[in-house]
Fold this sequence. Notes:
Number of helices: 14
Largest sheet: 7 strands, antiparallel
InterPro entries: AmpC-like, Beta-lactam-related, Beta-lactam/transpept-like
CATH class: Alpha Beta
Order of helices and strands: HHEEEEHHHHHHHHEHHEEEEHH
Distance between the termini: 38 Å
Domain Beta-lactamase-related: 42-278
Protein name: Beta-lactamase-related domain-containing protein
Shape: globular
Helix content: 25-40%
Pfam families: Beta-lactamase
Structural class: alpha+beta
CATH architecture: 3-Layer(aba) Sandwich
Radius of gyration: 19 Å
Organism: Amycolatopsis albispora
Amino acid sequence: MTNRSRKLLVGALVAGVLAAGVSPVTAAADPVHLELRANVTNGFPGALAYVREGERERRFGVGVANLATGERARPHQRFRTASITKSFTATVLLQLVAEGELGLDDPVERWLPGVLPDRGVTVRQLLDHTSRVYDPASTPEFFAPYLEHQDWGHVITPAEVIRRAVAHGPYPEPAYSNTNYLLAGLVVERVTGHDFGTELRNRILAPLRLHHTELPLTDPRLHGPHLHGYNLAREDHTTFSPSYDWTAGAIVSTVDDVAKFQRALLGGELLPPELTALGLGLEPFALPCEGGTQRVQGSQGSGPGYFSFAYTSEDRSRQIVVVLNSYDLGADVGGQGKQPYPGPREGPLPALSAALCQPAT
C-alpha cells in the first residue's frame, strides 16, 4: 500500500464508522459477527475474525473462501498478512537490540556498507519510516509483470527492490516505505549470520507455537486450508509471488496465530518493556467509539486479494484480528483515486469498533 493510500484509507474508514454509528451495546446479536455479515453483504466474498474480551475468545467465518467452489470461509484458513509482517520483522530486530547485538541508532552503513547512499540513515529510521528511502513497490510499473502480464510467479528479489529504490533517489520527506523493512531484514541477517526465516522461526514461531505461520520466499501459491483473495472484479489473486515483499509483507498466517503473536508482543513476552513501548513496527490510532475515541495498538495489512487489521485495546483486555478477502492492488497503486476495497464503509474498521470500544454505561 502506498503512503498516500494508507492515509486516505484510514480517513475513509474512520468517517464511515462514525457515520454508521457502530454501538456494541445496541446490537441484538454479536456485534462483530453482524459487521462481518455487513462486509459480505456489501461486496466482500468472505470475512474471518478472531475476537478476545479478557480470556473469552470467539472466532467467525462469514461468506465464502473460494468463489469458484463455494467453499465457506472458516477461521482456521490461512491468508497473506501483507504489512502485518512488519510487526514480526521489527520484533526480531528489536530482540537483537535487547541482546546488545546492535543499536537502534547504529547507521545502516555499519551493517550494510555501501547499500544506501545516505550513510546517516539509522536502524531506527528504517523501523519508523523516517529514512526517506523510496518504495518502488508503489507504482503500476512495478506490478506490471503480475497485473498486466499475469505472470503470478514472477520473482523480484529484495535486492532488486533496494537497487531500484536507490536508483530512484530518496523521498523529499519521510514516508511509509516497504523498502525500509527489506533493509531491516538484511540487517538481521548480517548481525546474526543466519537467514531471516531461521531467526523468525527460532525467536517467534517456534516459542509461540505458531504452527500455521510461514514466510515464503518465492512460492506464489498458498498451501493447506486458505482463504482465496480477489480484486474488485472478483478475479482470483490468491496466487501471487511474495518475492518482492519478504520481511515487509510476505508472511502467511491465520487469525489465531496473528492474535497469539500480538498478545505476546504487547504483553511483554517478546521484548523488554522499554522496547515494546517504542511501538516500532506497529500503527497506533484513535479508534472511533460511541462518545469519543479509544487508542488502540496494532497493525494493518493490504495487498493483492487481502485486507486485514490486527488491533488490541490500550489496556490489552480486548483484541481483534479481522481479514476480508478483497483488495485491488491495481486500484491502490494506480493513482486514480479508486477505492481498492468494496463499498464506501465496508472495510474492517466497523468490526474493530464493535470489538474494541468500551460498552457505554
